[in-house]
Each structure stands twice: as C-alpha cells, then as structure tokens.
Amino acid sequence: MEIKVNDTVSGFLDKISALLFVKHEAFYKEYWHKLNVKIEKEYFQVLAELKVIKKNYGEFLNFYFGSFRQYEDVVNGNIFCVATTFFRISDLYDEKFCDIIQILKESPDEKIRMNIAESLLYLEGQSSADEMMYAENQEEFFLLLKKLSITSESKWNLFEVIKQPRTYIQSFCETLLKINDELDKALSKLSSHKKKWIIQLNKMEKDIPIHIIETIKGKQYLDNCDVYMYPVLNPFTAIITKKQNVVYLGLGYSTDKFFLSQNDERVDKMINILKLLSDKSKFKILMLLKNKKLYANEIAEILQLSNATISHHMRILAVHDLVHTVRIQNKTYYYLDEHTIYLLLNDLQLSLVINDD
C-alpha cells in the first residue's frame, strides 16, 4: 500500500470551503459548538475578510453554495451544494487552482452531468453505477431530481444546470477568478496552520490514515488500495472518496484530535465519554442499539424526540466512536461500537481499580 501527501489541490478546495463557510456561517458556528470544539481565531478572521464577498456576490453564493438539505438534515457537517457536484477529487488531485479552473471550463456536458449525478446518488445513499445513464438522458435526470429528498430550490437550480451545464460551469469559474485575490488574502490568515498541518501529514504514521478510513468506511473499503492524502480547510472534517484502487483522504487541520488517541489524552477521552453517557437521552440511545441496528426515525419514535434532536445526538456519539452507520436498503442505520465501550471499561479499570498482580 502506498500512502502519499499532495497539497496542490487544496489551493482550489480551500476556496470552495471558504465560500461554504461564509455562506453557512451560522450553521458551522452551531455545529462546532455542539461538538464542543475550540476553533482558532484565525478562522473567524477569514470569515471577516470574506464578508465583502457575501455582500457583493450574494446571488452567486445562494445559487452555487446553497445547501441541498435543511441544516438539521446535514450529516457530519458536510454540506452538499451545486458547486461541490461539479468536480471529482480523483480528477483534480495533482492540479493547481488555475489548471483546475481550465479543466472545469473544458468539461463536456456529459462529464458535468455525470459528476452531478454521482454526487446526488451518493447523497441519497444509492449506487453510482447508473450515473452514465443520467448523463446521457435528461429525462431520466429530471425523474431522478423529482425523487430526491432535497429542497425545492435546489431541485430547480439543478434543473437549470442540467439543461445547460457548460453555461453554468463557465459562470461559476469566471466568478471564482474574479474573487480569487480576495480569497487568497483571506486564506493567508491560515497559512501558518496549513504549513504545520502539511508537515504533520507528511510525518504521519501509516496506521493513522488507515485507522481513520476504517473507522468511517469500514475495513473492506481499503482492500488493495493506495491512500492519497491532502489537507482541507474545515478543521474537524475527514473527506473520503474512492476511484478504482485509490482512496483520497482529505483531512482538516484538527482531525487528529478526534481520531487519534495519544497516551496523554487517554484521561481526557475517558472523561469526555463519561460526560456523554451522563446525558440521559444519549445513554438511552446506546441502550437501544445494544445488539441491533436502528435508523433515526425508529430511535426518534421510541424516545419521543424530534429527528433534529436525534441527528444532533448521533453526530456527537459518532464523533466519539460510540456509534457507526451502515446503509441498508437506502436507509442509514446506526449501531453500537462495542469496541469503544470495552476500551472505556478497560481504561477505567486500569485507572481506578487496584491491580493485585
């Protein structure tokens, strides 16, 4: 297995993330608050710098960066929008910003439609095997749009894009070029964080990215695959995509705080999990998931809580490796991670119980 790091594509992706940040400022602030994580002041300096873009390019942000789903339905803080459907990481991994803009401008209609279809099918938890059919048949694409569980506004925007893909991608690229200097200026506030993170990624032990991928996607996901890593702007995000025998892993600058458990952090991790277990609703959710899988609506109905509340609880439990998800017949089921519970009990025993040996 080859594991390598290349930060070239992040010059483009950081700008996409920055525009998502300024468009969905309230969502990200609330999301980070719920995760109980501290965000460096430089991120808010970036936000302040970008306010002028929000003021002058509001229609652009609304059309290309508006969330496909309501905030309470967003999973793991990953907002899907028109802009993020245009490209695949596997096509851009080794490319610089200006080269990526040119690649997008030259993309044929079928390629753009195929990328959009793949993103939408992924969002719905469906196989992307039929993406070519949607790329070649607009009527099939329109039928797909009707079935999607996304906002009406998003359906209409996608409807317009599907009819004239190159027109919309040209407009998208031209606007990115217009605001490129402003984006560079704003993102320069994070340059020191990025440099340190790239150094850390290059020094990272091989088992760490493997652990992160297996935690999120399962052990089989990595079979016979190489891993290509790149840094991403959102500090607590891991983005995983796959093409043939390569897994592309985008890691935020503070992702390791969630996924890596160093010895000197063991006590903090125990305390954090115990705090979670002290919440009655979260504890009841874990009890429900003992020896069985349930989807969100089932949990909400049993506990008589709203879907939004359950979604919030599940995000936090997932971040701390207490639950994981699996897709079964187009539904996302949650299940208990017994290994994390066993580790907690073992750590408690080592910390609090006298060893007679």
How far do the termini sit from each other?
A: 41 Å
Oligomer: single chain
Look at the helices and sheets and give the structural class.
Answer: alpha/beta
Which strand order spans the largest sheet, edge to edge or round the barrel?
1-2-4-3
Order of helices and strands: EHHHHHHHHHHHHHHHEEEHHHEHHEEH
Unreliable runs:
none
Instruction: Work out the helix count.
Output: 21
Mean pLDDT: 85
Radius of gyration: 21 Å
Beta strand %: 5-15%
Helix content: 55-70%
- Please tell me the total number of domains: 2
Outline type: globular
Count of individual beta strands: 7
The biggest sheet amounts to: 4 strands, mixed
Describe what this molecule looks like in 3D.
The protein is 60% helix and 10% strand. The protein is of the alpha/beta class and 357 residues long. It has 2 domains: 188 residues, no CATH class; 90 residues, Winged helix-like DNA-binding domain superfamily/Winged helix DNA-binding domain (Arc Repressor Mutant, subunit A), CATH 1.10.10.10. The protein has a 4-stranded mixed beta sheet with strand order 1-2-4-3, sandwiched between helices. A hairpin with a 2-residue loop joins strand 6 and strand 7. Helix 1 crosses helix 3, helix 3 packs antiparallel against helix 13 and helix 7 packs antiparallel against helix 12. The protein starts with a strand and ends in a 5-residue tail after the last helix. 29% of the residues are buried. It comes from Bacillus atrophaeus (strain 1942). This is NrsE.
